[in-house]
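Running this now, will post back.
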Amino acid sequence: MNAMHVASAMLDAGMIEYALIVDGEGSRYTQEVTLERLRRPDATAADVFAEFASLTLGSGAAAMVLSRTDKHPEAHRIVGGIARAASQHNLLCVGSLDRMTTDTAGLLSAGLDLAEAAWIDALKSFDWSAGADWYILHQVSKVHTTMLCARLGIDPAKAPLTFPHYGNVGPAAVPITLASVQDQIVRGQRVFCMGIGSGLNTSLTEIVW
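Update: finished.
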């Protein structure tokens, strides 16, 4: 979603005519070395709790092509979006290819606070108070999605889920979830996308289908 914002700005400025955005996520190696580490005799319950989130990751990829509306008036339109950060929470989730440690409770709490703050800012900048037809949210867990919808006043029926099938696919989760319902979205409907990443960072984008 950050790439969508950057590419949109470059397109609006006339710097490029097309942008190809690609993301790929592979969790197998990280999960294999995590399981190997946690099965050692010296592994503790604290180690399991700290690294459990690694075992919920998924693998997947997504790509999209962006261009200007005047070149492709028939295409779905990115209306705009915002991004916010709460970098004081940068140690709540720290990861590398070999290991990821997560304070799951702390990350959930801080992530919800950041999402709400970004949502309030978006309501001031965009006409989002009327709501959307679809909400494509970052896919982490049932608890996260339920609490996020409650905090932002989102109808859960409008927020499709893919984590039960694919796990947490990170940055690829939003486009994968969007693709899973693309045949159900009616032309002209408003689609709000929200991505949340460790750091903490969040991005919100509106697409008119």
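The longest strand covers residues 77-85. More later if anyone needs it.
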